[in-house]
Write a structure and sequence with these properties.
alpha/beta, CBS-domain, 2 domains, four-stranded antiparallel β-sheet, 35% helix, binds adenosine-5'-triphosphate
Length: 398
């Protein structure tokens, strides 16, 4: 979809910002460009929508050499999101989002309908936020409007330059997971610039790690490694990349390793309407101290302790003693999210449900299973095997 062929950019003062770059981004792929300040990420990106012209080499968009295209027509095919969102301060959120469809000739009402859909898509309620002005929004909400506006013309390509750079880490984390969810729906071809390796690893299908011009690197403007997050973390191509991803790359893998069905434990499961007496005998038989409690339709209600049930009158249903469980995640969420939810709820385990809108209970993830999943994923990469095929050796406890 986007192809760089031997692209070099030298500024008039002699700075080589991008040096003989060749790479390709497939349709629907999200590639993150990551590297230290001044390594040429923004220059790379701005050459795609012709805000900057290359000195040498060619860039193709869907097979077209972009130097032969009219820049305005080209930019219509490309959404652009930057850190300083650049919303019109005197226009409401809905008007800001409707600007592009309106410019493209959609009638006003249609443009506004489309804008409202897009706001919902990025997690804003058009009825609540649509009528506000940009300065009545939080930083994170403004970034969401920026993303909605970039999607308004439904361009096949998105360029995003540190779009979440200006918000605090908690909001950034939210925006990243929302953006991942959104990208699964819209499947745009995305070039995403960041200087944050964790963000690059979490969002990218593949990552381009730029050299920083350090003594150990190949210099600015060149890509040192272009590969999947797992490969960049698991097998850094050069000492520079190993340095850049950091010695805690095992920990960084938490954010790229999804919870899989094989990671889960299956505790005893009770239903809300089960009588306490029967439930107690079952837990005794299994020597279990607690059980997961499900609604009649198999969705998660919470949990119940064996002690609470044992003290209940026989005919009382489990419902009267069950506690709600807020610590849950869908399958496919990252191990990092799992760890964070465990800490947030001070929970010894979290419930894992089906993803994709279904809430069916699939099992629980415990700290030791989480640790195992992480070790398996690191080993699997080192051996080029799948996670399920890795047998772990463990140092025995004292
Ligand atoms: N207009 C310009 N004239 C001269 N040099 C420039 C110009 N714009 C950028 N540069 C230089 O080109 C190099 C690459 O800049 P670029 O903005 O692409 O880096 P970056 O990786 O996006 O950095 P950051 O993360 O700080 O935004 C830097 O050394 C920068 O100083």
């Amino acid at each position: 979809m986007i192809r760089f062929e031997h692209v070099t950019k030298r500024y008039p003062d002699g700075t080589t910002a991008v040096d003989d770059l060749s790479f390709e981004v497939a349709e629907g792929e999200l590639v993150t460009l990551v590297g230290p300040s001044g390594c040429g990420k923004t220059t790379t990106m701005k050459m795609v929508n012709r805000l900057i012209e290359p000195t040498e080499g060619r860039i193709f968009l869907d097979g077209d050499d972009i130097s032969t295209l009219d820049p305005v027509a080209l930019r219509r095919r490309i959404g652009y999101v930057i850190q300083q969102v650049g919303l019109f301060p005197h226009k409401t959120v809905l008007e800001n989002t409707a600007t592009v469809p309106h410019l493209l000739g959609h009638p006003r009402r249609k443009a506004r309908e489309r804008a409202a859909e897009l706001l919902e898509l990025v997690g804003l309620d058009p009825a609540v936020h649509g009528g506000r002005y940009p300065d009545q929004l939080s930083g994170g909400q403004r970034q969401r409007v920026g993303v909605a506006r970039a999607l308004a013309a439904d361009p096949p390509v998105l360029l995003m330059d540190e779009p979440f750079g200006a918000v605090d880490p908690v909001v950034r984390d939210h925006l990243q997971s929302e953006f991942l969810r959104l990208q699964q729906q819209v499947r745009k071809t995305v070039l995403f610039v960041t200087h944050d390796i964790e963000e690059a690893v979490r969002l990218g299908d593949r990552i381009a790690v730029y050299g920083g011009g350090s003594p150990r690197g190949a210099g600015g403007g060149r890509i040192e490694q272009f590969d999947t997050p797992a490969a960049v973390l698991g097998a850094p191509a050069t000492p520079y990349v190993a340095d850049f991803v950091g010695s805690d790359r095992g920990l960084k893998r938490l954010s790229v390793t999804p919870i899989e069905p094989g990671d889960l434990e299956q505790p005893p499961v009770l239903r809300l309407d089960d009588p306490s007496s029967a439930a107690t005998s079952r837990l005794r038989e299994l020597d279990a101290r607690w059980a997961v409690v499900l609604d009649g339709d198999g969705t998660l209600h919470g949990w119940v302790s064996a002690d609470a049930l044992a003290q209940a009158p026989d005919d009382q249903p489990v419902r009267d003693h069950a506690r709600r469980m807020e610590a849950w995640l869908p399958l496919g969420a990252s191990l990092k999210q799992a760890f964070s939810v465990m800490l947030q709820h001070d929970a010894g385990w979290i419930a894992v449900l089906d993803g994709e809108g279904a809430e069916r209970f699939r099992g629980v993830l415990t700290p030791s299973r989480l640790h195992e999943a992480l070790r398996r994923s690191i080993d699997a990469d080192a051996r080029g095997a799948s996670r399920a095929d890795v047998a772990l050796e463990t140092i025995p406890g004292a």
